[in-house]
Each structure stands twice: as C-alpha cells, then as structure tokens.
Write the structure tokens for this entry.
Amino acid sequence: MSDQPTNYDVSSIQALEGIEHVRKRPGMYVGGTDIKALHHLVYEVVDNAIDEALAGVCTRIDITIHPDSSVTIQDNGRGIPVGPHPTKKDANGKPMETLDVVMTVIGAGGKFGGGGYKVSGGLHGVGVSAVNALSEWMTTEVKRDGKVWQQNYKRGVPQGSIQVIGKADKSETGTRQTFKFDKVIFTEDIDYRFDTLVQRLREMAFVTRGVTIRFVDERAEREMTFYFEGGITSFVRYLNRNRENLHPVVYVEKEVENIGIEAAIQYTDAYTESVYSFANTINTIDGGTHLTGLRSSLTRVINDYARKNGLLKDSDPNFSGDDTREGLTAIVSVKHPGPQFESQTKVKLMNPEVQTYVTQVAGEAFGTFLEENPQAAKAIIAKCLTSARARDAARKARDLVIRKSALESLTLPGKLADCSERDSSKTELYIVEGDSAGGSAKQGRDRHFQAILPLRGKILNTERARLDKILGNNEVKALISALGTGIGDNFDLEGLRYGRVIIMTDADVDGSHIRTLLLTFFFRYMPDLIEQGHLFIAQPPLYRVAYKNQVKYAYTDADKDKMVKEVGEKASLQRYKGLGEMNPDQLWETTMNPENRTLLLVTVDDAAEADRTFDMLMGDAVDPRRRFIQTHAKTVRNLDI
C-alpha cells in the first residue's frame, strides 16, 4: 500500500458515542460472554497493533498471558496520542484527555477521519474501549515524545488523571496494554487457550508480511514467535506441506481503486477445498465478496482455458464451482480503507465492489499462469474432469441414499433403534461401535428420547476418498439416513432428526481410531453439524471401583488412584476395555444418563489448522504423521477429545 498517512496526533482522534451499555450488552461488542468472546478481547487489542503495522510504523508485537490470566499486548508503533482532545469534553466542560477518549468512548479512534490510518481492521471503533469496559482493570502505557505515560482504569473508568512515569528515548514509541478480564461479566469457568491464540496470531503474521509477533504464555511456560517474509504465499505452503502439489503457488498483488488485493493459489491432490479469506488482516470466517470473487474467477478461467484448448469437448458441460474447487488451497486478502462487515465480530465482508476487483485481479493472474504453464494447466483440468465425473456418480449414489418422498421414514436403516420423541430439540442419537456395545446401549437407554445406531467395524477414511466412494459405504449410508440432513450439496440442517449426535466408542486404540474417522467425516461433509453445536463425544468410565456397598466410577487414572486411596487397598477394581463389558444399567448410569454423564462438545476453533491437522493425521502422507506422533506421544493430553 502506498502513500501511508503521517498525520497522527490529537486531532486524528474522533469520538462518535458513549460507552454506557457495553457491560450490559457484551454480545453487541465482542459476541457474548463465552470462550470465543474472551479470546475476542485479545484480538481487538492485537488488531490495533496490527493496524500500526499496516501503516508501516510497527515491526514488532508482543503478547503475554500472565499467571493470573491478565494479558499484556505491546507494540513499537507510534503510541496513542497524549494531550487534551480538541473537541471531546467531560461533564464539567473541560477537554478530555485524548488517551481517555480512546480508552473509554465507544466509537473513538484514529480510523474515522482518514488522518490516522489508511487501512485498518478496527473500523467499527469499538475495540479497545469495549475491552476496557469488560475488564476488571486495565493499564495503558504510552511511549511518545520522549516520555512514558500511564493511565489506570477499573471496569472502564479512569482512576485519576494520566501520569508521566518515566523518560524514553525520542526514537522509542509504542503502546503497552495490560488487562484482566472481568469475571463479573465472563461468569463461566473459562480461560485463554494457548492453541486458539496461536492459530489467530499465526494467521495475522502470514497476512501482515514483515511483522514479528511473539506470544508468551507464562501460565505454562510456552512461547512461539512468528515472522513470515513470504506472507500469504508462505501460508499456502504451510497448509499444503502434507499434500502433493500440482504446481508452484500462483501469487498476485495489485491495488485497484485504493483497495489492496492479494491472492495465493495452489492446487493439490487432495479431495477437499482449503480456501481462507482476510479483510484488513482479519479472518472473515464466513467469507464475503472477496471470497466469492476469487472462486468465481477461478471457475471462469479454468472453463475458458479448457474450451479454448480442446480439453473440454463440445458435448461436455462446463465445470461447476465444486469441480474447480476440489484440491484447491487459496488465500485471498484485501486491504480496504472502508470495509463493511456484517457485524462487529467481522466474520463476513460485504463491500460489493470488492467482488468485481478480486475477480478481475485473480482471473488475470491465474489465466496468465495457465497460458504460460500448459503442463500445470493440463494437470489442474484433469483433476477437474475427474472431480466432475465423481460428482456425477456421487449425485446418483446420493439419490439412492436419500429418499425425498413420503416413504422417507421407511428408509431408515434397519440397525437403527429409534426413539419415540419426534421433537428434534429433545432427541439424541448415540453412534456406537459394534453389536455388543449396541446391545447394551439399546437396553440401557431411555427409549423416549435416545436412539442408538451401531456401526460394524471402522467406517471409511473419508479424507482419502471422493464422495461417490463414500456414499457406497454401508456404514456411511446408514449414518446419513439416520441423521436425515442429506450430505454435500443437499445438506440441510433443518432435516436433522436428533438435536444431539453423540459419538460413543471404547476407551482404547480402536475406539479412538473409529472416533477420529467419524470426526473426519463430520468435519469434511457435515461441518454445520459441528458449527451449530450438535456433535458430542461421550466419556465412558475407565474403571469401576467397588468396596462393600459403595460403587464409584473413575474416568481417568488419576480419579482411580484417588478413589482407591480413599477406600483402601481392599477395593475391587475393574478396568473397562470396552462398552460391551458394562451391563445396560451401568452404561446408563455412567455414560447415558443426562444427570450423571459427561459429554464433550466438538468445536473447531480454527478451520485452517483443523484442516491441516485432519489432512496430516488421516491423509496419504506418512512421514508427517509419524513425526507428529513421535513428537507429541509423551505430552498428549485429552486423548479422548
């Protein structure tokens, strides 16, 4: 981006409105009070530092989680302006301190008048003031003009006036924010997850070329540093490191009408699509106009090339978008001076002009690449042809699997033990392995609202198969029929027959493998089931500890050791190798009774990382999987998740 703005002083800060109901309506500002919203506090502050990097005035960002779960975010940007604000006044009519305006007034910042930033991810102006309002306390330090300034806040309220606490070299500038989330607001038993933050910070480093992001978690003495000179090209290579690539990464960067557009594209031998979009470095997980523009341009360019070079016959229909996206890994990143997001959490970009510009820029670059690399072009089109044929076969197979007729209820699999309740918000489907576990589950369940679907053996590894082959698998067919949602293009969550879909497998290696195969299937072909909170994993006990008339169940080795210690060595101990070893009453009491059981909700915090992990664990490449297992075998936690 050229012609970065240089005017960033007190006159750059504009105030739009007050902060009264941030604490009453946190959902409007950070999306709620759950663990996602908790992480969003960190993202909002880091976004401000990233904005400084986009302006070309920041090269380093340090994020630290302290042992008390307070967080410090420090950058070497210009530092928030200090001094009386030119227009904003306090209740007594005196000019407000500019730092307090930034930190306490919703809609205040350097991103509205065009003077402070040319491009920013924080254009809603909520950011740091909302974080301040939702924090038990917050401390801001600013290095600027040879001084170090400090201001303290409690639940968004300034504690006295800003203080000078030291001197700094004239060349030293930057902002340091430290805050502790308020447990009055975030009432759940939640805390920051290192892995969740790592994914987001890695993405930010990829799409903000040349900035160093260091992340330290003092709670567990973990640390990671990110710096990517290659930007989104490095991101695509990272995502594809366990896949066979059909050609080098195609990269384009161009500015159209003051909007910066970057795209990196590479096709692989995978059967799925891995495409991610960013607007002003923010991952727009629901896509938007930039993603639509990229996808449509690739489909058009591939069809045009295939027709022009006789690779598609006159009798052949054009490739569909699904055909041209199989095996595609791509990143599209736009830098827009006036982005329009669907909501404050910025999950979808809405600017209509972006679609036109991305279509034009990506189409020209990819079209040129195909013309100059005929071998790569042939390989891509051959993959599209195979995909089109497989998709046609899958369509026919799907029609056999899914009966959209009055007889639909009669097509439920024979092995399914259904429940009597018809309100899907009250029903549960247990997917269990084998007939013995299925028998215990059928006898032990509450027939009113719990259905049982036993699967024989291990289902197909859906990471290594196309949809047509998947739909030919009897176990997968039974699963799709039982759920009632359809699959692929026909997937419709409205048809879901069970509000909770629960995977219940043995607590052994085979059980873990079956669970992973099922999770792979749901992640690839029914992701909405996960995103909407319908998929769970049951936690059966590992041990039965009995002494006299007392019976207790242990779900971990630590639980077992504690129980044995409590009742003494005379306790009788039974290790459950499988669900089939439990009688129906025990299975109900420990794993299926809503009053006693433990269910783990399956979530996907970061789609890009989940995509890479499933590809590594379940894909064709053996070496990365072996390295992963050797590296993590001794430190594995939550094996059953």
